[in-house]
Design brief:
heterodimer; A: mainly alpha; two-stranded antiparallel sheet; disordered N terminus; B: mainly alpha; 2 domains; 13 helices
């Protein structure tokens, strides 16, 4: 199955600037949950061992502490970690996810608490039904039983039923699980091409030549040039195609990449200049710029 | 090119913000010194404005993506969860919880009414027909008590010393965690329009009423209430609070009023979740009274005094605390 297009959710900050977050994928969330469950189980095993030792030393008090710690682990493991600055449990952190407020406000402990309390019915009740259906489901009427099962299935399947992959806890807490944003500041392609301009075929493209393409083509070219080591044959093919399209008369320069960088710089300068004048040409299919005499 | 000049002029700001944000992501806001802390919001706003400008003047997608991501990270560092969990707990206990409960008056009344209605029904029906006791009380819960038990057995159950002293704390904590889980479940069930929550309250009331009728029938009513109320005041209040939280959730879902359904659910859900947190602490107190105090103190008067004190204490706390400022 191919990866579905990333779902993006816009959140408006208190300053009024819309920021775009990528919604965490289902696979990632299940994975994060599995990691957290694993950690919880390890913690419980350790706890049982410690309790056994402690009850030998401190008697009933040791057992009491063990019971409380188990309760705290089971009920507040997620809440505790999501209240911290990282907004993520160890599992979420490992898979690059975090919890945010769905409406752009501050993530409050209350919201985190509400989203995690709902795990009672999203996780523990379905598990109980799975392992002991007779003790948990209404026994007498099959209709009631079906209704209860359907309702539970709906609860569990909630993340599949909405675009933002919100589970019931997210609905109640008003939260979203998003990918932690990461990006590095890449070099400006036009700046580096300026440095090597001497070897490039000088940026003397005509306005007519630069008006053939739009923003979309520019950014496709950008992503090609940003590839770590683009294949020379690809670069040459693209360079040749552009040369044919714009009617480049000079011979093919030795270095296709130098030509593409020069063209990118000139093209971007042209498009940005028109942008400042309020003309945005999205792609080559967009209507051409108005000619000024 | 304008966008190149733009970038050259602001790049230093962005990288400075990036290092600050990386530190916050690692160790929280506390890891920033006072100077860095005061820089953070300035740099964050500067970067937001850079992003807005870049979106209009630059066609360098690498740059815009970087700025978007940096702004998102800085936004999360600035507006992410900020309080230390323990500080949040303190504020919650002194202000938020009592204020939230006073705000949920209607739901509390409804939950309380359902519990009392259940109790009254259980009492009247069991008093008339003792065999109904088994319909209201689960066998494992009754632990052998029932209409067929002798009066002496019933009295025994009220005073039984359950275990050696050092297991009492373990018993208390078992009661606490068990009840707290039921309470949280009552809240979570509120998601289905509050109906299961109300049913849970009603059936709890039935159980209570059935026991009361059983003991009343044997002339043990005073001793029964002295057995139940010391922890029961706290525990039943906590049950009602959890039920009220569930009703809040159901109400937010069914009757969102002017808000959109999801907004209403998110808003009310948070308030209700906070209330449940408070109820969990009430269950802790109840568990301690039940597991420790009740095992030691068998005097009826002393038990009733403790019941009254707990009633007065909770009323004073819930009605009085956190009135002075905004919650």
């Amino acid at each position: 199955m191919s990866r579905p297009a990333d779902v993006v959710r816009e959140v408006v900050t208190p300053e009024g600037v819309p920021l775009r977050f990528e919604i965490g994928g289902l696979g990632e969330r299940v994975g994060a949950f599995a990691i957290d469950c694993g950690l919880l189980m390890l913690a419980v095993v350790a706890l049982v061992l410690v309790t056994m030792i402690a009850s030998g030393v401190a008697g009933g008090l040791g057992v009491a502490v063990g019971i409380v710690v188990f309760f705290l682990l089971r009920s507040f493991y997620f809440t505790w970690f999501e209240c911290r600055a990282t907004g993520a449990t160890p599992g979420k952190r490992a898979l690059g996810l975090r919890v945010i407020d769905a409406h752009g406000g501050m993530l409050t402990p209350e919201a985190v608490l509400a989203r995690n309390l709902m795990r009672e019915i999203e996780l523990f009740v379905p598990l109980a039904v799975l392992f002991a259906p007779d003790a948990t489901l209404p026994a007498r009427s099959p209709a009631a039983r079906l209704l209860a099962l359907g309702w539970l299935a709906l609860l569990v399947a909630m993340p599949l039923l909405n675009r933002d992959r919100m589970r019931v806890g997210d609905l109640v807490g008003g939260t979203l699980v998003v990918r932690s944003p990461t990006a590095v500041l890449l070099e400006d392609l036009s700046a580096t091409s300026a440095a090597t301009r001497s070897s490039a075929p000088a940026a003397d493209f005509t306005a007519e030549q630069l008006d053939l393409y739009g923003i979309r083509e520019l950014q496709v070219l950008e992503s090609l040039l940003r590839q770590r080591s683009p294949r020379t044959s690809t670069l040459e093919a693209v360079a040749r195609q552009i040369q044919v399209k714009i009617g480049w008369s000079a011979a093919l320069p030795v270095d296709a990449e130098a030509f593409l960088r020069a063209f990118y710089t000139a093209q971007r300068a042209r498009l940005e200049q028109r942008l400042l004048l309020g003309e945005r040409r999205e792609s080559k299919r967009d209507r051409p710029f108005k000619r000024r005499p | 090119m304008k966008s190149v000049v733009f970038r050259r002029g602001r790049e230093a700001t962005w990288t400075e913000l990036e290092t600050l944000v990386a530190r916050v992501e690692q160790g929280g806001l506390a890891s920033l010194g006072p100077e860095a802390l005061s820089r953070l919001p300035l740099l964050y706003r500067a970067t937001l404005s850079s992003l807005s400008v870049a979106r209009t003047v630059s066609l360098d997608r690498g740059l815009i993506e970087y700025l978007e991501s940096l702004a998102c990270r800085a936004y999360l560092a600035t507006y992410g969860a900020r309080r230390h969990p323990l500080e949040a707990v303190r504020r919650f206990l002194t202000r938020v919880f009592p204020a939230r409960l006073r705000g949920a008056r209607g739901e509390l009344l409804l939950a309380c009414a359902l519990l009392l209605l259940g109790a009254a029904t259980g009492f009247v029906r069991t008093a008339r027909d003792p065999s109904l006791f088994y319909a209201f009380v689960d066998e494992s819960y009754a632990q052998g008590r029932g209409p067929s038990s002798t009066t002496e057995e019933l009295r025994e159950a009220l005073y039984a010393r359950r275990s050696p002293a050092d297991l009492l704390s373990a018993f208390a904590m078992f009661l606490f965690t068990h009840n707290a889980r039921i309470g949280m479940l009552a809240f979570a069930l509120g998601f289905a329009g509050g109906i299961p929550t109300l049913l849970l309250l009603f059936s709890n009331g039935l159980l209570l009423g059935a026991f009361a009728a059983l003991y009343q029938g044997r002339g043990l009513e005073l001793e029964f209430w002295a057995w139940l109320l010391p922890h029961g005041i706290t525990e039943l209040s906590a049950v009602v609070v959890c039920g009220a939280a569930g009703v809040m959730l159901g109400r937010a879902w069914l009757f969102p009023g002017r808000q959109r359904r999801l907004e209403s659910l998110a808003l009310r859900g948070r308030e209700a979740g906070a209330i449940v947190m408070g109820a969990v602490l009430m269950f802790l107190v109840a568990g301690l009274i039940e597991g420790v105090f009740r095992q030691y103190v068998h005097d009826v008067t002393a038990r009733l005094v403790v019941a009254l004190v707990s009633l007065a204490g909770w009323s004073a706390y819930l009605l009085g605390a956190g009135r002075d400022g905004a919650a």
